[in-house]
Design goal:
three-stranded antiparallel β-sheet; 18% helix
Length: 61
Amino acid sequence: MATAPSTDEVIDEFLAQRGHETEAVGWNENYNKKQCPDCGGLHESTATKCSVCGWTPSRPS
C-alpha cells in the first residue's frame, strides 16, 4: 500500500523544479559560536534567534 507524499514534500518538489533552494536553513558555525546566515552576527551556542536581525532557523537543525 503506497502512502501519499506530505504537503511539505509536494511544496519542496514544486519549488525545487523552479530553481528554488528547499534545504533546511540553519546556523553557520564560526569559532564555537553560531553565526547568522543573514547578517553574520555571532551568538552563543544556546542562541535560538539572532539578536541583531531577528532571523530564526526555518526548520530546527
